[in-house]
Design brief:
Rossmann fold; about 10% strand; about 260 residues; alpha/beta; 5-stranded parallel β-sheet
Length: about 260
């Protein structure tokens, strides 16, 4: 069978990205210890993806087997692609919008709450407003993003926050997801447009590593991690109901 060079290129690049992310394990573990401390206090961890496809990183760690029941997903309809792709981009570029989203989800009412902001590019208005407001509310901030795009994008580009700030420079814990510049990486003969986007792989792999390390940290603390099992397994619904009952007052989208 003839070699499929496009398939090989995409696969090999994704593997390389995952290896690079795994090389950030010390920083991931440091952030995981903070996440573990928050969950051990019976608090929830807020997770937001300020942008259309960034929402998938939030959905990845919510309401699924192997996910924490203590995750409070911020799935604001403003940037959800189901309401329109162009609309999503307009909303994420609107200064001040992210602050109101925190208010709507009642986030940051107590000092020491923790928020994970996942956005591969990390420059839009919603990203920067979220992290700046979270810091004003004395929250712990974790950013899943990259430098490859942020460092070279002109400060006056329309997708940027008016301050020109980058998410990776503003968060307390920067988890580098090693997004390649341009996102799509597969060259196709006959067109100058690349295929094979990588940003979702980058975000999802990083956040899952963070959750795995959080579980390990909780076990070391002697705390039972509140983790969902598959509802498709025998006894799954019954086991998960206990977690639902425990966290339903704290997690907006749990029911």
């Amino acid at each position: 069978m003839a070699e499929n060079k496009e398939l090989s290129s995409y696969r090999d690049t994704i593997f390389d990205i995952m290896n690079r992310i795994a090389g950030e394990i010390d920083t991931i573990q440091a952030a995981a210890e903070k996440v573990a401390e928050v969950i051990a206090r019976d608090e929830v961890v807020h997770v937001v993806g300020p942008g259309g496809h960034s929402n998938m990183a939030v959905e990845e760690v919510f309401w699924r087997a192997g996910g924490f029941a203590a995750v409070n997903p911020i799935l604001d309809p403003g940037t959800n692609l189901i309401h329109g792709g162009a609309r999503s981009m307009i909303v994420e570029r609107t200064p001040g919008y992210g602050i109101k989203v925190l208010d709507a989800y009642r986030v940051g009412r107590q000092p020491g709450e923790l928020i994970i902001i996942a956005n591969a590019y990390g420059v839009n208005c919603m990203c920067i407003d979220l992290v700046e407001e979270a810091k004003r509310r004395q929250m712990i901030t974790v950013g899943i993003t990259s430098r490859s795009y942020a460092d070279v994008l002109p400060k006056d580009h329309p997708s940027r926050h008016p301050t020109g700030k980058n998410l990776y420079q503003e968060v307390e814990y920067f988890l580098n997801n090693h997004l390649p510049y341009g996102d799509a990486i597969v060259e196709i003969e006959g067109t100058d447009r690349k295929m094979g986007p990588t940003s979702t792989f980058c975000n999802v792999f990083t956040i899952n590593l963070l959750m795995i390390e959080t579980t390990k940290a909780m076990v070391k603390m002697g705390v039972d991690p509140p983790i969902f099992i598959s509802g498709n397994l025998p006894g799954g619904d019954e086991a998960n109901k206990q977690l639902i009952d425990r966290y339903i007052p704290k997690v907006k989208h749990l029911m």
